[in-house]
Amino acid sequence: MFFKILTFPRKKNGSLRQYLQLVETYREGKKVKQRILLSLGRVDELRASGELDRMANALVRLTEREKIVDLAKELAATSNKVFGPVAVFRHLWKKRGMPKAIADAVQKETFFGYDAEAAIFRMVLGRLLNPKSKLMTHRWAETIFWDDGEVVDLQHYYRALGVLARNVGRIEENLYFGGRDLFTAPPDLLFFDTTSVYFEGEGPTGGLGQYYYSKDNRPDRKQMIVGVVLTRDGIPLAHHVFPGNTPDATAFSVVIEQMRNRFGIQRVILVGDRGMFNATIIRRIEELKMEYIAGVKMRTVVDVKEIVLADRSPFETVAQNLSVKNVVVGEKRYVVCHNEEEAKRAKAVREAVVAELREKLSNGPKRLIGNSAYRKYVAVEKEALSLDESKIASEAKYDGKYVLLTNTALSAKETALAYKALWQVERAFREIKSTFEIQPVYLSREDHVRGHVAICFLAFCLQTAFRKGTRDVKEIEGHSFESLLQSLKELRMVEFTAGGKSYRVRMEPDKIATAIFRAFGTPIPRRVTMLEPEQEAAQA
Protein backbone atom coordinates (compact mmCIF):
# COMPACT_ATOMS: atom_id res chain seq x y z
CA MET A 1 0.00 0.00 0.00
CA PHE A 2 1.34 3.44 -0.87
CA PHE A 3 0.47 7.04 -1.58
CA LYS A 4 0.46 8.28 -5.11
CA ILE A 5 0.16 11.72 -6.72
CA LEU A 6 -1.76 12.09 -9.97
CA THR A 7 -1.02 15.26 -11.89
CA PHE A 8 -3.42 16.87 -14.38
CA PRO A 9 -2.85 20.08 -16.36
CA ARG A 10 -5.46 22.79 -16.17
CA LYS A 11 -7.09 23.48 -19.50
CA LYS A 12 -7.00 27.26 -19.33
CA ASN A 13 -3.58 28.24 -18.05
CA GLY A 14 -1.64 25.01 -18.36
CA SER A 15 -0.73 24.90 -14.64
CA LEU A 16 -0.71 21.58 -12.83
CA ARG A 17 -3.31 20.22 -10.40
CA GLN A 18 -2.24 17.35 -8.13
CA TYR A 19 -4.39 14.78 -6.35
CA LEU A 20 -3.29 12.48 -3.52
CA GLN A 21 -4.49 8.87 -3.54
CA LEU A 22 -3.99 5.82 -1.34
CA VAL A 23 -3.26 2.87 -3.63
CA GLU A 24 -2.67 -0.84 -3.11
CA THR A 25 -1.25 -3.45 -5.45
CA TYR A 26 -2.83 -6.84 -6.03
CA ARG A 27 -2.19 -9.82 -8.25
CA GLU A 28 -4.70 -10.96 -10.86
CA GLY A 29 -3.34 -14.12 -12.39
CA LYS A 30 0.22 -13.37 -13.46
CA LYS A 31 -0.38 -9.62 -13.65
CA VAL A 32 0.23 -7.12 -10.84
CA LYS A 33 -2.36 -4.36 -10.84
CA GLN A 34 -3.20 -1.32 -8.75
CA ARG A 35 -6.49 -0.13 -7.31
CA ILE A 36 -7.36 3.10 -5.58
CA LEU A 37 -8.52 2.59 -2.01
CA LEU A 38 -9.46 6.24 -1.56
CA SER A 39 -8.85 9.66 -3.02
CA LEU A 40 -7.66 12.08 -0.38
CA GLY A 41 -8.21 15.23 -2.44
CA ARG A 42 -6.10 17.99 -3.93
CA VAL A 43 -2.57 18.28 -2.56
CA ASP A 44 -2.73 22.07 -2.19
CA GLU A 45 -6.02 21.87 -0.25
CA LEU A 46 -4.71 19.09 2.00
CA ARG A 47 -1.64 21.12 2.75
CA ALA A 48 -3.67 24.24 3.49
CA SER A 49 -6.01 22.37 5.88
CA GLY A 50 -3.15 20.74 7.79
CA GLU A 51 -4.38 17.20 7.08
CA LEU A 52 -1.30 16.46 5.04
CA ASP A 53 0.93 17.32 7.94
CA ARG A 54 -0.92 14.95 10.21
CA MET A 55 -0.51 11.97 7.93
CA ALA A 56 3.17 11.51 8.48
CA ASN A 57 6.30 13.45 9.19
CA ALA A 58 7.66 12.10 5.95
CA LEU A 59 4.87 13.90 4.10
CA VAL A 60 5.42 17.27 5.73
CA ARG A 61 8.26 18.00 3.30
CA LEU A 62 6.07 17.35 0.32
CA THR A 63 6.79 19.52 -2.74
CA GLU A 64 5.54 19.43 -6.31
CA ARG A 65 8.72 17.55 -7.32
CA GLU A 66 8.42 14.76 -4.71
CA LYS A 67 6.99 11.37 -5.64
CA ILE A 68 4.87 9.85 -2.87
CA VAL A 69 5.30 6.47 -4.43
CA ASP A 70 8.90 6.57 -3.18
CA LEU A 71 7.59 6.50 0.39
CA ALA A 72 6.04 3.05 -0.06
CA LYS A 73 8.92 1.51 1.88
CA GLU A 74 8.01 3.60 4.91
CA LEU A 75 4.32 2.60 4.94
CA ALA A 76 2.86 -0.37 6.80
CA ALA A 77 -0.89 -1.00 6.61
CA THR A 78 -2.27 -2.40 9.87
CA SER A 79 -5.96 -2.71 8.97
CA ASN A 80 -8.38 -2.20 6.10
CA LYS A 81 -11.99 -2.56 7.28
CA VAL A 82 -15.55 -1.65 6.25
CA PHE A 83 -17.06 1.22 8.24
CA GLY A 84 -20.08 2.47 6.23
CA PRO A 85 -22.84 0.06 7.41
CA VAL A 86 -21.72 0.26 11.05
CA ALA A 87 -21.82 4.06 11.05
CA VAL A 88 -25.35 4.21 9.62
CA PHE A 89 -26.97 1.26 11.39
CA ARG A 90 -25.32 1.96 14.74
CA HIS A 91 -26.75 5.48 14.50
CA LEU A 92 -30.18 4.02 13.66
CA TRP A 93 -29.79 1.45 16.45
CA LYS A 94 -29.26 4.22 18.99
CA LYS A 95 -31.94 6.48 17.49
CA ARG A 96 -34.47 3.64 17.71
CA GLY A 97 -33.61 3.27 21.41
CA MET A 98 -32.19 -0.25 21.13
CA PRO A 99 -29.28 0.11 23.61
CA LYS A 100 -31.52 1.45 26.38
CA ALA A 101 -34.28 -1.07 25.64
CA ILE A 102 -31.78 -3.92 25.91
CA ALA A 103 -29.98 -2.50 28.96
CA ASP A 104 -33.22 -2.00 30.89
CA ALA A 105 -34.44 -5.49 30.00
CA VAL A 106 -31.26 -7.42 30.90
CA GLN A 107 -30.21 -5.49 33.99
CA LYS A 108 -30.76 -8.55 36.21
CA GLU A 109 -28.47 -10.67 34.05
CA THR A 110 -24.88 -11.34 35.08
CA PHE A 111 -22.17 -10.76 32.49
CA PHE A 112 -18.60 -11.98 32.66
CA GLY A 113 -16.25 -9.81 30.69
CA TYR A 114 -18.41 -9.01 27.68
CA ASP A 115 -21.03 -6.53 26.53
CA ALA A 116 -24.29 -8.33 25.60
CA GLU A 117 -25.66 -5.32 23.73
CA ALA A 118 -22.52 -5.12 21.58
CA ALA A 119 -22.77 -8.85 20.79
CA ILE A 120 -26.47 -8.53 19.91
CA PHE A 121 -25.83 -5.56 17.62
CA ARG A 122 -23.08 -7.43 15.80
CA MET A 123 -25.36 -10.42 15.21
CA VAL A 124 -28.20 -8.15 14.03
CA LEU A 125 -25.90 -6.32 11.61
CA GLY A 126 -24.57 -9.68 10.49
CA ARG A 127 -28.12 -10.75 9.58
CA LEU A 128 -28.46 -7.61 7.45
CA LEU A 129 -25.09 -7.84 5.72
CA ASN A 130 -23.84 -11.40 5.99
CA PRO A 131 -26.47 -13.87 7.21
CA LYS A 132 -24.37 -16.90 8.16
CA SER A 133 -23.71 -19.11 11.15
CA LYS A 134 -22.50 -17.61 14.42
CA LEU A 135 -18.98 -18.85 13.67
CA MET A 136 -19.02 -17.21 10.26
CA THR A 137 -20.53 -14.06 11.81
CA HIS A 138 -17.60 -13.96 14.23
CA ARG A 139 -15.12 -14.20 11.35
CA TRP A 140 -17.01 -11.61 9.32
CA ALA A 141 -17.02 -9.23 12.28
CA GLU A 142 -13.22 -9.11 12.08
CA THR A 143 -13.53 -7.36 8.69
CA ILE A 144 -15.71 -4.58 10.12
CA PHE A 145 -14.56 -1.34 11.76
CA TRP A 146 -16.53 -1.24 15.03
CA ASP A 147 -16.85 2.17 16.60
CA ASP A 148 -17.59 0.93 20.14
CA GLY A 149 -14.16 -0.52 20.87
CA GLU A 150 -15.71 -3.69 22.34
CA VAL A 151 -14.05 -7.07 21.94
CA VAL A 152 -16.60 -9.83 21.29
CA ASP A 153 -15.50 -13.46 21.20
CA LEU A 154 -17.39 -16.38 19.65
CA GLN A 155 -18.59 -17.62 23.06
CA HIS A 156 -20.08 -14.19 23.74
CA TYR A 157 -22.43 -14.52 20.77
CA TYR A 158 -23.88 -17.77 22.12
CA ARG A 159 -24.22 -16.30 25.62
CA ALA A 160 -25.97 -13.26 24.16
CA LEU A 161 -28.45 -15.54 22.35
CA GLY A 162 -29.52 -16.98 25.70
CA VAL A 163 -29.77 -13.51 27.24
CA LEU A 164 -31.89 -12.35 24.32
CA ALA A 165 -34.18 -15.38 24.49
CA ARG A 166 -34.91 -14.73 28.17
CA ASN A 167 -35.52 -11.01 27.77
CA VAL A 168 -36.77 -10.33 24.23
CA GLY A 169 -40.36 -9.80 25.43
CA ARG A 170 -39.28 -6.98 27.74
CA ILE A 171 -37.06 -5.56 24.99
CA GLU A 172 -40.05 -5.39 22.62
CA GLU A 173 -42.14 -3.68 25.29
CA ASN A 174 -39.35 -1.19 26.04
CA LEU A 175 -39.04 -0.39 22.35
CA TYR A 176 -42.79 0.14 22.08
CA PHE A 177 -43.26 2.35 25.12
CA GLY A 178 -40.01 4.19 24.52
CA GLY A 179 -40.72 4.89 20.87
CA ARG A 180 -44.35 6.00 20.78
CA ASP A 181 -43.33 8.89 18.55
CA LEU A 182 -42.86 6.33 15.80
CA PHE A 183 -46.60 5.76 15.60
CA THR A 184 -48.84 8.21 13.79
CA ALA A 185 -51.68 7.04 16.08
CA PRO A 186 -52.12 4.47 18.84
CA PRO A 187 -51.88 1.08 17.13
CA ASP A 188 -55.41 -0.27 16.89
CA LEU A 189 -54.97 -2.16 13.63
CA LEU A 190 -52.60 -5.10 13.81
CA PHE A 191 -51.44 -7.46 11.13
CA PHE A 192 -50.50 -10.92 12.31
CA ASP A 193 -49.46 -13.99 10.39
CA THR A 194 -47.50 -17.14 11.01
CA THR A 195 -45.03 -19.17 9.04
CA SER A 196 -43.12 -22.39 9.58
CA VAL A 197 -39.35 -22.52 10.05
CA TYR A 198 -37.69 -25.92 9.75
CA PHE A 199 -34.69 -27.47 11.47
CA GLU A 200 -31.79 -29.49 10.18
CA GLY A 201 -31.44 -32.62 12.28
CA GLU A 202 -33.64 -33.28 15.28
CA GLY A 203 -33.85 -29.66 16.36
CA PRO A 204 -33.73 -28.52 19.98
CA THR A 205 -34.91 -30.56 22.93
CA GLY A 206 -37.96 -29.40 24.84
CA GLY A 207 -40.66 -29.88 22.24
CA LEU A 208 -40.16 -26.76 20.12
CA GLY A 209 -39.43 -28.82 17.01
CA GLN A 210 -42.46 -30.79 15.81
CA TYR A 211 -43.73 -32.42 12.63
CA TYR A 212 -46.81 -30.68 11.23
CA TYR A 213 -48.17 -29.02 8.10
CA SER A 214 -45.21 -27.23 6.52
CA LYS A 215 -45.71 -23.93 4.70
CA ASP A 216 -42.25 -24.51 3.19
CA ASN A 217 -43.19 -27.89 1.71
CA ARG A 218 -40.74 -29.64 4.04
CA PRO A 219 -42.88 -32.25 5.83
CA ASP A 220 -39.70 -34.29 6.30
CA ARG A 221 -38.28 -31.77 8.76
CA LYS A 222 -39.22 -30.81 12.28
CA GLN A 223 -40.34 -27.21 12.47
CA MET A 224 -41.36 -24.35 14.72
CA ILE A 225 -44.00 -21.70 14.11
CA VAL A 226 -42.98 -18.03 14.02
CA GLY A 227 -45.52 -15.22 14.13
CA VAL A 228 -44.94 -11.50 13.55
CA VAL A 229 -47.16 -8.57 14.55
CA LEU A 230 -47.05 -5.31 12.59
CA THR A 231 -48.88 -2.02 13.02
CA ARG A 232 -50.83 -0.29 10.22
CA ASP A 233 -47.69 1.82 9.61
CA GLY A 234 -45.66 -1.33 8.97
CA ILE A 235 -43.70 -1.04 12.23
CA PRO A 236 -42.75 -4.43 13.74
CA LEU A 237 -44.28 -4.66 17.19
CA ALA A 238 -43.57 -8.17 18.43
CA HIS A 239 -42.80 -11.71 17.38
CA HIS A 240 -43.78 -15.08 18.80
CA VAL A 241 -42.28 -18.56 18.65
CA PHE A 242 -44.54 -21.61 19.01
CA PRO A 243 -43.99 -25.38 18.83
CA GLY A 244 -44.12 -26.62 15.27
CA ASN A 245 -47.53 -28.31 15.67
CA THR A 246 -49.38 -25.22 16.95
CA PRO A 247 -52.60 -24.49 14.99
CA ASP A 248 -53.11 -20.94 13.74
CA ALA A 249 -56.22 -20.55 15.90
CA THR A 250 -54.20 -21.27 19.06
CA ALA A 251 -51.46 -18.85 17.98
CA PHE A 252 -54.07 -16.16 17.35
CA SER A 253 -55.53 -16.59 20.82
CA VAL A 254 -52.15 -16.25 22.51
CA VAL A 255 -51.16 -13.20 20.50
CA ILE A 256 -54.44 -11.38 21.09
CA GLU A 257 -54.19 -11.80 24.84
CA GLN A 258 -50.55 -10.71 24.84
CA MET A 259 -51.31 -7.57 22.87
CA ARG A 260 -53.72 -6.59 25.62
CA ASN A 261 -51.55 -7.57 28.57
CA ARG A 262 -48.13 -6.52 27.30
CA PHE A 263 -48.87 -3.38 25.29
CA GLY A 264 -52.19 -2.23 26.70
CA ILE A 265 -53.79 -2.42 23.26
CA GLN A 266 -57.45 -3.06 23.91
CA ARG A 267 -58.92 -2.76 20.45
CA VAL A 268 -57.25 -5.11 18.04
CA ILE A 269 -58.37 -5.68 14.46
CA LEU A 270 -56.75 -8.72 12.94
CA VAL A 271 -56.26 -8.69 9.19
CA GLY A 272 -55.68 -11.85 7.19
CA ASP A 273 -55.84 -13.08 3.62
CA ARG A 274 -57.97 -15.84 2.11
CA GLY A 275 -55.52 -18.57 3.07
CA MET A 276 -55.08 -17.57 6.70
CA PHE A 277 -58.59 -17.16 8.10
CA ASN A 278 -60.99 -20.08 8.18
CA ALA A 279 -64.32 -20.53 9.93
CA THR A 280 -62.67 -21.98 13.06
CA ILE A 281 -60.30 -19.02 13.46
CA ILE A 282 -63.09 -16.50 12.85
CA ARG A 283 -65.27 -18.16 15.49
CA ARG A 284 -62.37 -18.02 17.97
CA ILE A 285 -61.78 -14.33 17.29
CA GLU A 286 -65.45 -13.58 17.82
CA GLU A 287 -65.45 -15.57 21.08
CA LEU A 288 -62.62 -13.34 22.27
CA LYS A 289 -64.73 -10.27 21.40
CA MET A 290 -62.13 -9.15 18.87
CA GLU A 291 -62.49 -7.71 15.39
CA TYR A 292 -61.22 -8.97 12.05
CA ILE A 293 -60.95 -8.27 8.33
CA ALA A 294 -60.69 -11.51 6.38
CA GLY A 295 -60.32 -12.24 2.70
CA VAL A 296 -62.97 -14.59 1.32
CA LYS A 297 -62.63 -17.34 -1.28
CA MET A 298 -65.24 -16.05 -3.71
CA ARG A 299 -65.76 -19.25 -5.68
CA THR A 300 -66.32 -21.51 -2.67
CA VAL A 301 -68.53 -19.42 -0.35
CA VAL A 302 -72.16 -19.86 -1.41
CA ASP A 303 -73.36 -16.53 -0.04
CA VAL A 304 -70.65 -14.71 -1.98
CA LYS A 305 -71.31 -16.52 -5.27
CA GLU A 306 -75.08 -16.28 -5.17
CA ILE A 307 -75.85 -13.08 -3.24
CA VAL A 308 -72.86 -10.80 -2.70
CA LEU A 309 -71.52 -10.75 -6.26
CA ALA A 310 -75.07 -10.52 -7.63
CA ASP A 311 -75.71 -7.28 -5.73
CA ARG A 312 -76.46 -4.38 -8.10
CA SER A 313 -75.85 -1.44 -5.77
CA PRO A 314 -73.27 1.09 -7.00
CA PHE A 315 -69.60 1.12 -6.05
CA GLU A 316 -67.88 4.06 -4.33
CA THR A 317 -64.51 5.08 -5.77
CA VAL A 318 -62.01 5.48 -2.91
CA ALA A 319 -58.64 5.40 -4.68
CA GLN A 320 -57.10 4.85 -8.08
CA ASN A 321 -58.30 1.48 -9.34
CA LEU A 322 -60.22 0.80 -6.14
CA SER A 323 -64.00 0.99 -5.70
CA VAL A 324 -65.93 -0.51 -2.79
CA LYS A 325 -69.41 -1.25 -1.49
CA ASN A 326 -71.03 -2.95 1.48
CA VAL A 327 -73.24 -6.02 1.07
CA VAL A 328 -75.00 -7.39 4.16
CA VAL A 329 -76.17 -11.01 4.22
CA GLY A 330 -77.95 -11.85 7.47
CA GLU A 331 -75.56 -10.93 10.30
CA LYS A 332 -72.52 -10.91 8.07
CA ARG A 333 -71.10 -7.79 6.41
CA TYR A 334 -69.12 -8.20 3.23
CA VAL A 335 -67.07 -5.53 1.48
CA VAL A 336 -66.79 -5.98 -2.27
CA CYS A 337 -63.68 -4.38 -3.79
CA HIS A 338 -63.25 -3.72 -7.50
CA ASN A 339 -60.14 -2.88 -9.51
CA GLU A 340 -61.11 -1.60 -12.97
CA GLU A 341 -57.69 -2.18 -14.55
CA GLU A 342 -57.52 -5.72 -13.20
CA ALA A 343 -61.06 -6.31 -14.48
CA LYS A 344 -60.01 -5.28 -17.99
CA ARG A 345 -57.01 -7.62 -17.87
CA ALA A 346 -59.13 -10.55 -16.66
CA LYS A 347 -61.72 -9.93 -19.38
CA ALA A 348 -59.05 -9.75 -22.09
CA VAL A 349 -57.46 -13.01 -20.93
CA ARG A 350 -60.82 -14.79 -20.82
CA GLU A 351 -61.82 -13.55 -24.27
CA ALA A 352 -58.49 -14.73 -25.69
CA VAL A 353 -58.94 -18.17 -24.14
CA VAL A 354 -62.53 -18.47 -25.39
CA ALA A 355 -61.54 -17.37 -28.92
CA GLU A 356 -58.78 -19.97 -29.01
CA LEU A 357 -61.15 -22.58 -27.64
CA ARG A 358 -63.73 -21.89 -30.34
CA GLU A 359 -61.06 -22.47 -32.97
CA LYS A 360 -59.82 -25.73 -31.49
CA LEU A 361 -63.14 -27.37 -30.70
CA SER A 362 -63.32 -28.74 -34.23
CA ASN A 363 -59.81 -30.27 -34.04
CA GLY A 364 -59.76 -33.03 -31.52
CA PRO A 365 -61.99 -31.68 -28.78
CA LYS A 366 -61.16 -34.52 -26.38
CA ARG A 367 -57.64 -33.17 -25.95
CA LEU A 368 -59.07 -29.97 -24.52
CA ILE A 369 -60.56 -31.56 -21.43
CA GLY A 370 -57.17 -31.78 -19.70
CA ASN A 371 -56.50 -28.06 -20.12
CA SER A 372 -57.78 -26.27 -17.00
CA ALA A 373 -57.86 -22.91 -18.82
CA TYR A 374 -60.30 -24.41 -21.32
CA ARG A 375 -62.16 -26.87 -19.13
CA LYS A 376 -64.08 -24.33 -17.07
CA TYR A 377 -65.69 -22.93 -20.24
CA VAL A 378 -66.62 -26.29 -21.76
CA ALA A 379 -69.86 -28.26 -21.43
CA VAL A 380 -69.43 -32.03 -21.70
CA GLU A 381 -72.40 -34.11 -22.82
CA LYS A 382 -71.58 -37.73 -23.51
CA GLU A 383 -68.80 -37.59 -26.11
CA ALA A 384 -69.61 -34.10 -27.32
CA LEU A 385 -67.91 -30.89 -26.22
CA SER A 386 -69.31 -27.41 -26.62
CA LEU A 387 -68.86 -23.94 -25.25
CA ASP A 388 -70.82 -23.35 -22.08
CA GLU A 389 -72.05 -19.79 -22.54
CA SER A 390 -73.51 -19.67 -19.03
CA LYS A 391 -70.09 -20.49 -17.52
CA ILE A 392 -68.46 -17.79 -19.64
CA ALA A 393 -71.02 -15.23 -18.53
CA SER A 394 -70.79 -16.34 -14.89
CA GLU A 395 -67.01 -16.00 -14.82
CA ALA A 396 -67.30 -12.32 -15.71
CA LYS A 397 -68.72 -11.51 -12.27
CA TYR A 398 -65.31 -12.21 -10.69
CA ASP A 399 -63.38 -9.82 -12.95
CA GLY A 400 -61.25 -7.43 -10.91
CA LYS A 401 -63.04 -8.23 -7.65
CA TYR A 402 -62.13 -9.51 -4.23
CA VAL A 403 -64.42 -9.83 -1.22
CA LEU A 404 -63.76 -9.17 2.46
CA LEU A 405 -65.68 -10.33 5.51
CA THR A 406 -65.53 -8.11 8.60
CA ASN A 407 -67.22 -7.56 11.96
CA THR A 408 -65.71 -4.07 12.43
CA ALA A 409 -67.47 -0.72 12.40
CA LEU A 410 -65.00 0.54 9.81
CA SER A 411 -66.40 1.96 6.61
CA ALA A 412 -66.08 -0.01 3.39
CA LYS A 413 -63.26 2.33 2.35
CA GLU A 414 -61.36 1.93 5.63
CA THR A 415 -61.81 -1.84 5.49
CA ALA A 416 -60.47 -2.11 1.95
CA LEU A 417 -57.46 0.14 2.61
CA ALA A 418 -56.63 -1.81 5.77
CA TYR A 419 -56.66 -5.06 3.83
CA LYS A 420 -54.43 -3.61 1.11
CA ALA A 421 -51.79 -2.94 3.78
CA LEU A 422 -51.56 -6.68 4.41
CA TRP A 423 -48.65 -6.88 1.96
CA GLN A 424 -46.41 -5.56 4.76
CA VAL A 425 -46.78 -8.80 6.69
CA GLU A 426 -46.06 -10.81 3.58
CA ARG A 427 -42.93 -8.71 2.97
CA ALA A 428 -41.88 -9.20 6.59
CA PHE A 429 -41.86 -12.97 6.24
CA ARG A 430 -40.10 -12.80 2.87
CA GLU A 431 -37.39 -10.64 4.41
CA ILE A 432 -37.02 -12.75 7.54
CA LYS A 433 -36.98 -16.07 5.66
CA SER A 434 -34.91 -15.07 2.62
CA THR A 435 -32.87 -11.92 3.24
CA PHE A 436 -32.02 -12.85 6.84
CA GLU A 437 -31.86 -16.60 6.14
CA ILE A 438 -33.68 -17.65 9.30
CA GLN A 439 -33.81 -21.26 8.07
CA PRO A 440 -32.75 -23.97 8.15
CA VAL A 441 -31.90 -23.76 11.85
CA TYR A 442 -28.89 -25.79 12.97
CA LEU A 443 -28.89 -24.78 16.64
CA SER A 444 -29.59 -27.47 19.22
CA ARG A 445 -30.45 -25.47 22.35
CA GLU A 446 -33.92 -24.01 22.61
CA ASP A 447 -32.74 -20.72 24.12
CA HIS A 448 -30.24 -20.33 21.28
CA VAL A 449 -33.00 -21.03 18.74
CA ARG A 450 -35.30 -18.43 20.30
CA GLY A 451 -32.40 -15.98 20.45
CA HIS A 452 -31.69 -16.62 16.77
CA VAL A 453 -35.31 -15.81 15.84
CA ALA A 454 -35.13 -12.66 17.99
CA ILE A 455 -31.96 -11.56 16.14
CA CYS A 456 -33.80 -11.92 12.82
CA PHE A 457 -36.75 -9.94 14.19
CA LEU A 458 -34.50 -7.11 15.44
CA ALA A 459 -32.75 -7.09 12.05
CA PHE A 460 -36.16 -6.65 10.43
CA CYS A 461 -36.90 -3.77 12.85
CA LEU A 462 -33.65 -2.08 11.83
CA GLN A 463 -34.28 -2.68 8.13
CA THR A 464 -37.79 -1.22 8.45
CA ALA A 465 -36.36 1.92 10.09
CA PHE A 466 -33.80 2.18 7.29
CA ARG A 467 -36.44 1.81 4.56
CA LYS A 468 -38.65 4.45 6.17
CA GLY A 469 -35.76 6.86 6.53
CA THR A 470 -34.71 6.57 2.89
CA ARG A 471 -38.16 6.32 1.32
CA ASP A 472 -38.41 9.98 0.23
CA VAL A 473 -34.71 10.66 -0.46
CA LYS A 474 -34.56 11.83 -4.07
CA GLU A 475 -30.90 10.92 -4.67
CA ILE A 476 -31.51 7.22 -3.99
CA GLU A 477 -34.97 6.87 -5.52
CA GLY A 478 -35.26 3.60 -7.42
CA HIS A 479 -32.35 1.92 -5.65
CA SER A 480 -32.98 -1.40 -3.93
CA PHE A 481 -32.14 -2.05 -0.30
CA GLU A 482 -29.34 -4.34 -1.47
CA SER A 483 -27.79 -1.70 -3.73
CA LEU A 484 -27.88 0.87 -0.92
CA LEU A 485 -26.12 -1.59 1.37
CA GLN A 486 -23.49 -2.16 -1.30
CA SER A 487 -22.70 1.57 -1.42
CA LEU A 488 -22.18 1.51 2.34
CA LYS A 489 -20.08 -1.67 2.18
CA GLU A 490 -17.63 0.02 -0.18
CA LEU A 491 -16.69 2.58 2.48
CA ARG A 492 -13.51 1.46 4.21
CA MET A 493 -11.35 2.67 7.06
CA VAL A 494 -7.61 2.18 6.48
CA GLU A 495 -5.03 2.33 9.27
CA PHE A 496 -1.33 2.59 8.51
CA THR A 497 1.98 3.73 9.92
CA ALA A 498 4.27 6.26 8.28
CA GLY A 499 7.23 8.11 9.62
CA GLY A 500 6.91 6.18 12.88
CA LYS A 501 3.34 7.36 13.52
CA SER A 502 -0.07 5.72 13.02
CA TYR A 503 -3.01 7.16 11.12
CA ARG A 504 -6.58 6.27 10.25
CA VAL A 505 -7.95 7.37 6.87
CA ARG A 506 -11.51 6.86 5.67
CA MET A 507 -12.71 6.45 2.13
CA GLU A 508 -14.82 9.26 0.77
CA PRO A 509 -18.54 8.27 0.35
CA ASP A 510 -20.12 8.43 -3.09
CA LYS A 511 -23.35 10.34 -3.83
CA ILE A 512 -25.60 7.47 -2.71
CA ALA A 513 -23.75 6.85 0.55
CA THR A 514 -23.65 10.60 1.22
CA ALA A 515 -27.43 10.80 0.74
CA ILE A 516 -27.92 7.92 3.21
CA PHE A 517 -25.73 9.60 5.83
CA ARG A 518 -27.62 12.85 5.33
CA ALA A 519 -31.06 11.16 5.55
CA PHE A 520 -30.37 9.89 9.07
CA GLY A 521 -28.15 12.70 10.27
CA THR A 522 -25.34 10.19 10.67
CA PRO A 523 -22.03 11.88 11.41
CA ILE A 524 -19.25 10.98 8.99
CA PRO A 525 -15.92 10.12 10.67
CA ARG A 526 -12.98 12.46 10.12
CA ARG A 527 -11.11 11.79 6.93
CA VAL A 528 -7.72 11.59 8.61
CA THR A 529 -7.10 10.83 12.30
CA MET A 530 -3.72 10.53 13.99
CA LEU A 531 -3.94 7.61 16.44
CA GLU A 532 -2.70 8.03 19.95
CA PRO A 533 -0.76 5.14 21.51
CA GLU A 534 -3.80 4.00 23.51
CA GLN A 535 -5.93 3.97 20.34
CA GLU A 536 -3.33 1.86 18.59
CA ALA A 537 -3.39 -0.60 21.47
CA ALA A 538 -7.19 -0.77 21.40
CA GLN A 539 -7.19 -1.57 17.68
CA ALA A 540 -4.48 -4.21 18.05
Q: What is the count of helical runs?
A: 20
What amount of the residues lies in strands? 15-25%
Number of E-state strands: 18
User: Overall pLDDT, averaged?
Assistant: 80
The major sheet is characterized as: 9 strands, mixed
Span between termini: 19 Å
State the secondary-structure class.
Answer: alpha+beta
Give the neighbour order of strands across the main sheet: 7-6-5-8-9-15-12-11-10
Helical residue percent band:
40-55%
Shape: globular
Question: How much is the radius of gyration in Å?
Answer: 30 Å
Poorly predicted regions: 56-74
Write up what this structure looks like:
Among the domains are: 2-81 and 496-539, no CATH class; 340-399. 41% of the residues lie in helices and 23% in strands. It contains 20 helices and 18 strands. It has helices spanning 43-49, 51-55, 57-60, 84-95, 98-105, 116-129, 134-141, 154-178, 248-263, 279-287, 302-308, 340-360, 372-375, 389-395, 412-420, 423-435, 446-470, 481-489, 511-520, 533-539; strands spanning 2-9, 16-28, 31-42, 76-82, 189-198, 223-231, 236-243, 269-272, 291-296, 316-319, 322-329, 332-338, 378-381, 384-387, 401-406, 492-498, 501-506, 528-530. A hairpin with a 2-residue loop joins strand 2 and strand 3. Helix 6 crosses helix 17 (446-470), helix 8 (154-178) packs across helix 17 and helix 9 runs parallel beside helix 10 (279-287). The model is unreliable at 56-74 (pLDDT under 50).
